[in-house]
Amino acid sequence: MKKTLLALALLVGCAVPPVHAAPGDALGWLPDETVVAFRIDFKKLWRGPLMGDSRRLIQKGGAAYALLQMQMSPRLDEVEEITGGAWLGPDGAPGFLIALTASSPIDVQKAASTYLGLVARPVSSAAGRIWESQGISLAQVSDREILIGSGPEVKAAIGRKKGKPRFEGLLDGQIAIQVVRNPAIEALGAAVPDPFAPLAAAKSFKITVATQGEKAVLSLRLAFDDEKQATMAQEAVGEAKKMAKGAFDQGRAQIKRQMSGAGEGDLIQHFGMIMALGWLNVLEKELNGIQIRKNGAELSTSMDANIADLNSAGIGPMQAGMAIGLLLPAMQGAREGATRAESTNNMKILGLAMFNYEATYGHFPPAVITDKNGKPLYSWRVLLLPYIEQDAVYRAWKLDEPWDGPNNKRLSDLVIKTFCEPTEPPSNRTHYRVFYGNGALFNTAVQGKINGSRVAEILDGTSNTLMIAQTRDSVPWAAPDEIAYDPTKPLPALGLPGANDFLCGIADGSVRRIKTNLKPQTLHWLIQKADGNALPDLDK
Predict the structure, then answer these.
(1) How far apart are CA 159 and CA 219, in angstroms?
(2) Does the pLDDT of residue 336 top 70, yes or no?
(3) How many C-beta atoms lie closer than 10 Å to residue 499's C-beta?
(4) How many C-beta atoms lie closer than 10 Å to residue 286's C-beta?
């Protein structure tokens, strides 16, 4: 009997539907200093008439659409709501936070790949497991909700917990945006011309987009401190309409003068001017049709348009649908492109530091510095510290002590951005390494008697000689763990895990990406500085 009751209890428990957050509930993640907040009722927007044509177009992608859905979490038809906000921190730096809720459990690993790119990596923190990439973090706060934002903001949100939602007015429509008065807005308002200055006194304004049958309705509401301010703002709108009418009249007169002066053969120009005249008339009619309503200390207005007309014109919904289809790969592509550019820049900085060192001492730094008994102490990267804006670290370094000695260990644990791989969490490890010995550009040297290769020794030409390579394995940047070159042995794996190319700094100061399937013999020739072999085209 007890087993039966237990089984029934389990069945009832499993039958209870999941608890969904109330609309706008995710706004409670935003801090009190939020000045811009938004809410997108994505479920209604995606399934409604405003994006109907866009949705059907995307779904016709067939297998490609199905593959995209498989790679995403949550899928497009599972997204319930997207909310977020932005603010200025005490130091004036902007912060932002976005919350995304779904109707089904979210696969956080897929979500991280979707929104942060394939280079996203999980890290542990006091706030729990967080995925990071390029300073942006993603955290799963429930099985159906994730937060995305700058790293400190995500951690701070988790730490303070979700509070009572503010910005209650954002529950209207499928899209709602609200801005409250803040120092940045006040500074912009100070630049508004006098006739329109009363409008800049609004303490908040809200924009919403909703659908009513087959129409899309855009509404604007401005709130002021008192009714007097609202009245002055309403009068300013009237003045703006008068000024706009004068501008329209001047525009029409200018177009008519140009039309009268156009030659008979200028049909295309004539046609364009007729279209411009038509648009001016349409805009003036729409402007005249806008009615500003005052209710106490608030002003409001709205305008609508047939959704079919918007779709036929390719305005708004259609473009939004296309944007969704392109958004994720574009975001990933842009982010991955940014990381590649940052890695390339790091390599350029190191190459420039090499030449600055050579200009100072008459030779390049040795790959590894040893003590008088031949024991490796530290790497070439230590000697380049003064040339990459790390002079304080270099001055604190004991040059006669190993990299992991009592004094140097704390320094070698420091994160030096120039040595870091941008696609990985910041650490004291690096993928930028050099080959030394047996004809390679670098050698080893004893501390106190440091010497190295000179530019004049690069007989193959600086543009044909490898200086720094991006290796598969990473090492602590200060460790004397470079690549002892042997022309008779296989070379180590180059390029980051999963990459089909590797970054390399050339001895002429340039940076190149070379395919990992480059013939080993060609790579051997590239490493040696005076072997006399002509290099083939490295891009083939």
Answers:
(1) 36
(2) no
(3) 16
(4) 11
